[in-house]
Amino acid sequence: MNQAGVNEKYKVSPFYVFFLVHSMQTGVGVLSFQRVLAKITGTDGWISILLAGLIVHIMIWVIYKIFSIVPGDIISANNHAFGKWIGNFFSLVFILYFFLLSMTVMISYINVIHVWMFDEVPSWAFAIVFLLVIYYINTGGFRTVTGIAFLSVILTYWLLFVLFYAMKYSEFTNLLPVFHHTLSDIWKGTRSTSLTLLGFEMIVMYYPFIKDAKTSQKYAHGGALTTTLITVFVYLVSLVFYSQKQLQLTIWPTLSMTSIVELPFIQRFEYIDVSWWAIVIIPNMTISLWAASRGFKRLFNVQQKYPLWGMSIIILLTNIFVVDVDSLYILNKIINPYGVLFLVLYLPLLLVIIYIKKRRKPI
User: Fold this and answer.
1) Rounded CA gap, 110 and 278, in Å?
2) Can you tell me the distance from the alpha carbon of 156 to that of 273, in angstroms, rounded to the nearest whole number?
3) How far is Cα 129 from Cα 285, in angstroms, rounded to an integer?
4) Among candidates 185, 159, 150, which has minimal Cα distance to 43?
């Protein structure tokens, strides 16, 4: 049943799944999620983040359970559950989702660069640079993609310590009151946080590239847990640094906090922060485009570089002719809530169907 056979020399150790999951989840959403969450849940927003993290862990368990029954990737699982034609339709939905996620991340980050640094440089100029880097990384194979994810985590963790600088200007009574929002508000906050914690689902494509893949589940959970805890930390720091009204009006609270950093040799520290954040964002775009092009290769039996070219050209043309604030808003709405809702509903349904078929007929 496994049609996604991968040569052993192209596989990575289970340990690296921690970095693949964590680097993919940590992206441009960390810069701005606080504003929307504060409007909905205020000081109880950390509960929504923990609930979103719990849902992520459940989805990771579902993914590994699926592949314990049907070895391979999501395309193998879809074909086993629904047959070739319906299964290929759902696989195309996943490919489209991966592609749109990559485009959303790139356009969002370019928007940040425009606002904070280079407002007169056209979007397509940044897009060309990013797409060339992403193509170069992807042509090195999945092991190179994994290496970039590993370096991204190692080289950017120092940014967390910048937030401690903001804490000396903090008012800790801003954390109160606690538990004063309804369950409905908490759930709405969880939905708004979902985009920040997305990325774990890429496992459905790179699962065959993991050595002894079933042993990597604990590392996938570890990566998701780390992202959740960091997101909670960032939100709590934002709560004590800003007033509720300020937090609800600040578009990029994380970046705005770093702008207060004062060093004798650096006048605008946020320039360093925005620039260094590219190291965080590149794995987001690289892994999702790799997953989309890999899925296209599996479905249509073409070399992976061709769909990668095509998708890169579409992203570039989008940055030339379409990009504005409204298009970014539409992309975010497609991914969240519709993309999130699709994952949360589809993956458990897929597991149930595969499990039923297993009981009727062994794979």
Assistant:
1) 10
2) 10
3) 12
4) 185
Burial (0-12, 13-18, 19+ Cβ within 10 Å), 207: buried
Question: Crossing angle, helix 123-139 and helix 305-321, to 10 degrees?
Answer: 170
Element (H or E) spanning 25, and its range?
A: helix 17-25
Give the per-residue SS3 of 72-85. Answer: CCHHHHHHHHHCHH
Q: What is the mean pLDDT of residues 10-15?
A: 96
Give me the chain's average pLDDT, please.
91
Answer for the pair 110, 118: CB distance below 8 angstroms, yes or no: no
Question: In sequence order, what E strands does the chain have?
Answer: none
> Is residue 263 a contact partner of residue 51, using CB atoms and an 8 Å limit?
no
Please report how many Cα atoms fall inside a 13 Å half-sphere around the Cα of residue 276, on the Cβ side. 17
Please report how the helices 45-69 and 217-241 are oriented relative to each other, as an axis angle in degrees rounded to 10. 170
Separation in Å, CA 308 to CA 40, 99, 127, 312: 39, 10, 14, 6
Q: What pLDDT shows up at residue 28?
A: 85
**Span 243-298, pLDDT tens digits:** 999 999 999 999 998 888 877 777 778 888 999 999 999 999 999 999 999 999 99
Q: Tell me the whole-structure pTM to 2 decimals.
A: 0.94
φ/ψ region of 122 (left if φ > 0, alpha if ψ in -120 to 50, else beta) reads beta
Q: Amino acid identity of 267?
A: Q
CA atoms within a 13 Å half-sphere pointing along the CA-CB vector of 87: 18
Question: How many CB atoms within 10 Å of residue 143?
Answer: 13
Token pair belonging to 192: 């708004």
Q: Look up tokens 């597991």; give the residue.
A: 351
Burial level of 360, CB count in 10 A (0-12/13-18/19+)? Answer: exposed
> Mean pLDDT over residues 187-210, rounded?
90
% of residues, the chain, pLDDT over 70: 96
